[in-house]
Amino acid sequence: MKPLYNFAFFDEGSKREVRRAVLKGIAIPGYQVPFASREMPIARGWGTGGLQITLTLVGRDDVLKVIDQGADESVNAVSIRKLIVGTTGIASTDDTAEATLIQSRHRIPEVPLTKGQTLVLQVPIPEPLRFVEPSEFATKRLHAEKEYSGAYLALFEEIMKYGRVSTGADHPVTVNGRYVMAPSPIPRFDNPKMNDSAALILLGAGREKKIYAVPPYTRVVSLDFEDHPFEVEDMGGKRCSLCGATGVFMDEIHEDSGAVRYQCNDSGFCLSRRGGGKGGEA
Amino acid sequence: MGYVAVKGGEAAIEASIERLKYERLKTGSFLSVEAVSGGMKALIDQVMSEGSLYDEGIAAIAIKQAAGSPEEAVFLVRAYRSTLPRKHYSIAAEPSSMRVERRVSACFKDIPGGQILGTSADYTHRLIDRGLCSETPEENESWLRDWNGREPEADPPEGSPSLDALPNVIGFLREEGLLPRLPIDDAEPHDVTKKALEFPTVRSERLQILTRGQTGAVTALGYAALRSYGALHPTVGELRVGMVAVYVANPSGDEDSTDDAYYVGEVRITEVESLVPVPVERGQGRTEIEFDIGYGACFGQNETKAIAMSILDQCLESGDKRYPTQDEEFVLMHVDSVEATGFISHLKLPHYVTFQSKLDAARRTRAREAGK
């Protein structure tokens, strides 16, 4: 990367502006703060919200981890890491425990995050009510009035239709008893990891120009009903064919023979288990 | 085992980028940036307009780098633009003092200053010109010498206004009282690149989003409004293309006056004012026809986009949400090239986790059906 660009790509004025939005987000957990999202050298919808947060927070001593759908080596994770490392010269790692700054798309690592770490999640659609109400003007109002019956009604309709809640990833959560928030398309499996997290969780939506946050040790509750409690994806009876882990989120691999086997989705976690065992049987 | 994109991402990316270069060079015929600048004026104008950056040189490099894809070129320009410090806002440029190169009105046959056809492909027949395959530099140079040596065929008629002081056609209608008299609104425009859009928007934000919009998207929505959704038939009061001077105020002088401001250059723009007839209730069952104005302006010569923009401007001013073309969220959130192409193209990214999660939900609903 030629020194045509500043440390971490942005000019300092832009960084300050994004940081202001981050601070406001931390001050109002779960509230979507609009910000002047910049066009980035990677495409809108490919993680520009997360990237803008990361680039404004990164310092020379940070150790970076970037994952896409659980994998450090996934093409988009490689591309984003290349850009951040290329414009900052900081160190990067696959090891969750070693990282100070983790940018992720659609997963929270299996290794529990610790105090002082920051997890930055890339968000495609930050508005949890978007599928019940297409208008931004209207949804802002619904949040202001804490009017979330639409979100519950959507879950209720699923129960009526399918006998159970059929949300996939991005199952909405209530943050700090106030705002309903889209946790970004993490699997339901990862929702509980947000609750009372020791690490700071920041969420950035570049195209939709919103930043929001879950500060450390904040209560995060997945939306559900008393008689239909929230359920994570069923990983029961599945064992990683590479490291033997159970009880973690698995990728389903279809062999040429037609057989199905499983493998840890969090590739950093899987590798560390095979490379001499950081983290035991989860 | 099938392809699992977990390891080897880095090497694959490097190889893919190399292939991109190979595809650009493989025929052995290399396009120079000068050739882009010289021969692709329309594309440069489009890229500058959608890229929201008036820099012909940067646009030309971007087009070469993008192998001619407007979507990629606009993306490059925008990403470059967002690293540029913005030190000044110009004084509002005044298109009535435009050095006009082309100007047509569909309202009146004869307008003061006259219709000026200028440069336009409108009346060409779209027949492939095979002659372009064999044109030689010598021929072209000699043609150019001829062109440059030509005398003007006729002097402009006595008393006609000069080309940088052509009165706006709309002005005549305003004098006649056919346009509503509105107070001058000199409110400082918002800057959509410095603050995220919030609804309801103000007009300066709408105009900025539209002028930065993807040409095809703005055209498609303008066409939808024209054809059926909220059917209206505007008339182009005036379309003009020409150079507009840009000034930055002298910090110690008058903020709005160009007298002691710094002249920083000129930009070519297309400006359109459309007239849309609307019924106005006058009470006691009496209805009169008045004209609304739709305004379009964009960098470069992008006439279809500017006209479509003027239609959408009027649509969004009316704001009748029965029609998607009059719903500001529907129009403004979806016309940006970088945003639309980015989000559509992200579907190429792996979705293993999200899909696995949906698969889990789907299997459970099936298990229930089977259990009935």
Question: What would you say about this model in short?
Answer:
The complex is a heterodimer of chains A (282) and B (372). With 282 residues, chain A is an alpha/beta fold.
Give a quick set of tags describing it.
heterodimer, A: 282 residues, alpha/beta, Rossmann fold, 7-stranded mixed beta sheet, 3-stranded antiparallel beta sheet, 7 helices, 27% helix, globular, disordered C terminus, B: 372 residues, alpha+beta, 4-stranded antiparallel beta sheet, 13 helices, 15% strand, disordered N terminus
Plain-language structure description:
The complex is a heterodimer of chains A (282) and B (372). Residues 277-282 of chain A have low confidence and may be disordered. In chain A, helix 1 packs across helix 2. Chain A folds into two domains: 12-130 and 158-222, Rossmann fold; 234-282, no CATH class. In chain A, 27% of the residues lie in helices and 18% in strands. Chain A has helices spanning 12-27, 48-57, 75-88, 136-144, 149-162, 191-194, 267-274, and strands at residues 33-34, 63-68, 91-92, 101-105, 118-122, 173-175, 179-181, 200-205, 210-214, 220-222, 250-254, 260-264. Chain A is globular. Chain A has 282 residues and is of the alpha/beta class. With 372 residues, chain B is of the alpha+beta class. Chain B folds into two domains: 11-81, no CATH class; 95-119 and 158-335, no CATH class. Chain B is 40% helix and 15% strand. In chain B, helix 2 crosses helix 4, helix 3 packs across helix 4 (56-65) and helix 3 crosses helix 5 (70-81). The longest helix of chain B is centred in the last third of the chain and has 20 residues, at 352-371. The two termini of chain B are 36 Å apart. Mean pLDDT of chain B is 89; it is low at 1-6. Classes of the chains: A alpha/beta (282), B alpha+beta (372). Chains A and B meet through helix 3, helix 4 and strand 11 of A and helix 1, helix 5, helix 12 and helix 13 of B.
